[in-house]
Amino acid sequence: MGENKEAGTMSMHDEETGYFKRFKRWKMIIIFLVLALVLTIAFAVAVGPFQISPLETWRIIIKNIPFLGSLVNDGSSGVEEVIILQFRLPRTIAAMTVGVALAVAGVVLQGLFRNPMAEPYLLGISSGAALGVAIAIGLGIRLSFLGILDSMQLMAFIIALATVFVVYNVARTGPRVPMLTVLLAGIAMTSFLSAIISLIMITLGESLHALIFWLFGTFSGIKWSDVTISLPLITFGLFTILVFSRQFNIMLLGEDEAQQLGVDTERLKKIMLIFATLITATAVSISGTIGFVGLVIPHIVRILVGPDHRILIPSSALAGAIILVLCDTLARIIIQPAELPVGVLTAFFGAPFFLYLLRKKKGLGMRG
Amino acid sequence: MKQKNVFIAIILISIIVFTVGITWQLLPKTSTGPTGPISVIDDLGRNVTITNYPPERIVSLAPSSTEILFALGLGDKIVGVDSYSDYPPDAINIEPKVGSFSSINIETVLGLQPDLVLATGGIQRIVVEALEELGVVVVALYPQNISAVLSDITLVGKITGKISEANVLITDISERIQDIADITQDALRPRVYIEYFFNGGYWSYGSASMVNEMIYNAGGINVFAGFAGDYMSTSDEAIINADPEVIIISQGAMAESCGLTIDVIKGRMGWGDVSAVENDRIYEIDEAMLVRPGPRIVDAIETLAYLIHPELFS
Questions:
Q1: Which CATH class is domain B186-312?
Q2: Best mutation target, A57, A207, A216, A218, to test chain B (most B CBs within 10 A)
Q3: Which of A1, A143, A156, B189 has the most CB atoms in a 10 Å sphere around its CB?
Q4: Number of domains composing chain A
């Protein structure tokens, strides 16, 4: 927080009491959302085709937390323990992480492009990441970086970043990067990348329907190894974005004014773009392309908490996590023992809701 | 009362007329083969007239149809096949290939000037419509269960002038299926899980699939018989919960693409307590044999029966 002192000047115009009132309100919002997230997770890990009572579920989880573990008696729980600790828990955490990533990427991109329709898709980020994964799966390319990143994550990030690089440089005129051309270049790149993905899928032939399932977005088969890669990457991306959220606020008031206040807007745009790309690519590489979370969550949250990014970003992150954990839980249990791709559910709920929002309130609280 | 009698009489007469009609259709007239065009209704409910009967130039767009044609002794009449047709081995040498199962090259098919094209429903429905519009004689085979496969063999026999061959074939298949049923009828039905791919979940078959029916005919029960669809993506948890006593890998291109092997299944976390893993009852079956709705379904049922009930076969 300390390195964004220049943004603090904004608050000085506020009345002292107004500032504290707002801060108190923000605190309440965050506490409420964190509680809701904890409850959602508690629900998510307690349901599934294998019947385990909620009490037993939590006994198993607490048993495996260091220090707290000694507080509960050690009953016998072989399969139950594996199911909760190795399947449900990593999966729930993955859904949470991806929800955070998509919602935050949505907020950042909508701000950057001053366009309420902006989301990871429009820039080609999702398609770039999806192409990376399609190449990794389809062509069997095995790449790893220092043994840390799996080939899927690495390919996703490389191609998503390359996509953003192309879009950014095509769109750029002189030192400035007009957002309209970025958007158009993004749409063109998305079509191009989708064409390559289709080509790979046609060549693949028989493994086609599994890849289609994956393209819809799914958390099936998530293991701890997927989470241990994505969680630190997304956390890192989220905190970097949070650190720059004050400068981001100022930039959104007007780029000239922001520059006069000492904000390097072009550098800020690049940073925000790179980190939004990083978290999106990481999310896509573990779950496929899950639509509408990046679009709908920021809108709802903006209506509820207002346009200030210092509260909008953390609230959207939490709301994204809650919604995606809920959707994935539904996807797991709605047609059990089979599973639905979670992307089908987010689109099913998200698209009509978004249309409703568009119809009801065309501005959606966004300027520009 | 009187009215009821009349009603019953009408039903009886209808049944008799219907039976005689069917018998008439199947008897001498057709077994010697008509010389003129014949009409049939295919699996998409289309009324198709085979104008050049019996057809001399046949194109097969699916490996299952290719297998049926070869089984009826029509291998030398095939002038083009899809690229997945690889059984019997002679099918591999047939040129040209008219595209893959999911993307058929209509121009190539048209260029072969076939008297008959055997297509499927589903993904090939659009190909069927396109060829029909171009005046090509297309019959779609789209069986959804074992008895429909048998009727399709009869149908192919009928439109190619191989009625008696078809009858011999389906009699043989039916008898072998019945033999397996007789052998396994008193045995308990073990819970069987068949996996063919894992990526985005573990892929298996639900109750709408023919594989589900084949497991039952082999004296087992599909662990996911309670799921209404045909294909399904499922989870570790659901499989551990279902506790299969026999696990069978459907070994084909998809299983190969994800590296699905017996050792992979044994090594899965949390699967150690699954009965099939505990008792080392994990096997493989040839996917082409298992999923192609052709004459080899009976081989698949026999193989499944040996794997599920080794104690009944020596």
A1: alpha beta
A2: A207
A3: A156
A4: 1
